[in-house]
Write a structure and sequence with these properties.
The chain has 176 residues and is of the alpha+beta class. It is built from 5 helices and 4 strands; from the N terminus they run αααααββββ. About 32% of the residues have low confidence. The protein has a single domain, classed as Nuclear Transport Factor 2, Chain: A, CATH 3.10.450. Helix 1 packs parallel to helix 5. Helix content is 35%, strand content 16%. Strand 2 and strand 3 form a beta hairpin. It comes from Nocardioides lentus. Keywords: Signal.
């Protein structure tokens, strides 16, 4: 039986593996430290005042990319949470940000393994270098948006035309 893994996670790992291989060759080492736990069962949304950096702002200290259209703040926040969970190896929160259809399609164990590897490669959240969303200016359940973003400090990690859907639970990744 083959396991289906999201192309989004695959792109993160391919870009990450290339970066790690280059860094390992330059530094003369082959491995970095591992991370304990897979994050499954962790809350998706941080508590008030918490974020991915001190002070609770996930992009603290970064120069913000240009503003996105009105109505995309919640979408940007969901993409930020997903990227942070993925890069820090927390499979539970990342998986929870999938649509129900994607959760039915993507094997949770294989996803968890890949997210753990991404956490080993990156280990920390990275601020957006660029972010744009098309089709996210409405607020009705069922709306879809195509999102493009890059993360500062992750050369080669470019997400293009990533499909997100507005559900009763908020924006969820539908690109699976």
């Amino acid at each position: 039986m083959s396991r289906y893994v999201s192309p989004v996670v695959s792109r993160v790992l391919v870009a990450g593996l290339a970066l790690v291989a280059t860094a390992a060759l330059a530094a003369g080492c082959a491995e970095g430290p591992g991370r304990a736990g897979d994050g499954i069962g962790e809350p998706v949304v941080p508590a008030p005042g918490e974020g991915t950096t001190p002070g609770g702002d996930p992009d603290a200290g970064a120069v913000d990319p240009p503003p996105v259209p009105a109505g995309t703040d919640d979408l940007r926040r969901a993409v930020r949470l997903y990227a942070d969970a993925l890069l820090t190896g927390r499979a539970g929160p990342a998986y929870a940000l999938y649509t129900d259809a994607c959760r039915d399609r993507v094997d949770r164990t294989a996803f968890g393994d890949l997210v753990a590897r991404a956490g080993e490669l990156y280990g920390e959240p990275l601020p957006f270098a660029a972010f744009s969303a098309v089709g996210a200016d409405a607020d009705e359940v069922g709306d879809r948006a195509e999102v493009d973003y890059t993360l500062r400090g992750a050369r080669g990690l470019v997400q293009e035309d990533e499909t997100w859907e507005l559900t009763a639970d908020g924006w969820r990744l539908a690109d699976c």
